[in-house]
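Exercise 7 asks you to align residues with C-alpha cells for two separate proteins.
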Amino acid sequence: MSASVIRLESVDSTNLYVRKGLLDNTLSGRGVVVSRIQTEGYGRAGRAWHSDNALGLWATLYFATGGLKVHEMVSAVSKAVSRTLASRGVPARVKFPNDLVVGQRKICGILAETFPQGALAGVGVNLNQSPSDFPEEIRETATSFLIEKGEPWPVDDFLERFLAECGDLETFSREK
C-alpha cells in the first residue's frame, strides 16, 4: 500500500477528523485513518452509526487532491469491501446509494465527501458484533461477519485485505 495509515484509539468520527485535517492542511497526500472506537459515528443525513466499540472497522480513506467524484468513490469503496467480504465467504451486495447488505441486512455503510482541499470516504464495516451488540432498534436490520460466518475476523486483518482490494489508493476510484 502506498499510503499512510493513522491509527487512533478513540475519536468522535474518523470522517470529522479527516475533514478537519484536510481543511487545515495537517493531512496531505493520501491515506487512511482508523479508530478502534468512534464516539459520534454518523451516516447519511446525520443518522447515527453505532461504532462505539472495537468490533468493526471504522475508517476513512482520504485524498488531498481534487478531481474525485463522490459517486465514483462510493462505488470503488463498495466494490473493495464487497470483494474483501467475499474472500471469506460472505456475499455482500451494494444497496444504493451507500450501503452493503447481506440478504436484506446491512453490514457496511459508506459516506463520501469532496471539497476543494480533497476527498474522503468513510467506511463502517460490522465485523465481530453478535446480535446483542447492536442497539435494539437495528437488531433486525443489521448484520456482521460474525453473525454471517459464525467466526470472528480481526479488524487489522480485514483492514489489510480491504486496502489490498482498494489497490493503489491514488487511482482506486477507477472502475475495477
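Second protein for Exercise 7:
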Amino acid sequence: MKSKNIFLKAAVGILCLAVVFFSCSKSSSKPSNPGGPVTGTPDATLTNLGTNIIVPAYQQLATSTAALDLAIAAFNSNPSPGTLTDVQTAFKTSYISWAAVSEFEFGPATDLFLTTHFINSFPTDTVTIRNNVNGAAYAIDGLGNYAAQGFPALDYLLFANGTATTLARFTTDATAAGAKQYLAALSASLKTKAAAVSNAWSASGGNYLNTFINATGVDAGSSLSLMVNAYVEDFDVNLQNYKVGIPIGMYGPSVLPKSPTKVEAYYSGLSDQLLIKQVQSFQTIYLGGLDDKVAATSAVNNGQPLNSVITTEFTVLLAKIQALPDPLSAGITNNSQAISDAYTEIRKTTVLLKVDLPSALGIKISFQDDDGD
C-alpha cells in the first residue's frame, strides 16, 4: 500500500538494515522505542495480550510461511495443476495469518522489517516483478523493490490470468527459470522474517515478551503506547484508507475515481477474508485487556460507557464486513450498497479507536496519517 511517506520509510528501512549491527540491533532488555517507560510489576493486560494473542499469532505466521515455502519448493520442482493448488492454498493460509499480526508493527516487527511496507504493499508493482523475472538485478528488500515483494507479489505470480497462464509462466515461458527463482526468493524472505520475529518474542529467543509485559505505563516508550499506536495506525491507515477507502474512491475528505484493482489480494480474490480476519483480530485485541483498562477509566461517549460503545461497535462492524460482496473488487464495480455501509461503520470505528480510546487511556497518538482526518 502506498502513501506520500513510503519512499522515506523504505529508505530509512534500508539504511537501518545496512547498519543493523551498530544502531538497529534489538536489545532484549529494553523496549524497541525507548521513551522512559515505567518498569516493574508485569501488567496483567500486557501479559495476556503478549502471551495469549501476540506470541501465538506470530507463531502461526512463522508456521504458515514455512509451509508456504515448502509448497513453493515442491511446485518449482514439479509445476502441475496439483502442486499449484497446494501452493495457492498455502498462500491463502499464510496471508490470512498476516492479517492477525499487522496490528503489531513495533518492537521486533519494525527491527526485523516484518512490516506492512515490506510485506503487504499493494497494488503490487507488476512491471518491476516482470523485470525481475526477466533477469534484472534485484534485492528483495531493496529500496526499488518494496512494492514488488511480499504477499501482493506472490498474489500476482500465483493467481493472475488463471491456472493455464500461471503454469505456463513457470514451465514453457522463456523466463520460467527466472519466475521460479523470484517466487522462491519472495517466499524465503517472508519465511525468514516471520521466523525471526516469532523467535524474538519467544523465551528461548530474544524474549521480547518479557520486555513487553514489564514496560508498563502509558508514556511514549511504554508497551501500551507502542501497541496502541500501532493498533490505531493499522486500522486508520491500512484498513480504512488503503484496503477500503481508496478502492471505493474515498480517501479522507476526497472523492476519487473508483479503483477496484487496488483492493488487497486482487488476483486471488482474498480481500474479504483478509478484512474479516483483520477486524476479528482488532476485536480480539481490544477484548484481550484494553476493554478492562477503558472500563476502569469510566470514560463515556455520548453519555454511554466508552467500553460498551467500542465493544458494541466491533460487533456491528464485523457484521458489516462479513456482509461484503465477494470478491470485493466486483462489489466496487457494481456499486454495492453493502460496501458503502461497511465503510461508514469503519469511519465510526476509526474515531473511537483514534480519538476516544487513546484519550481514555492517556496515550498520545504519535503517528501521522495523510488523509486529512
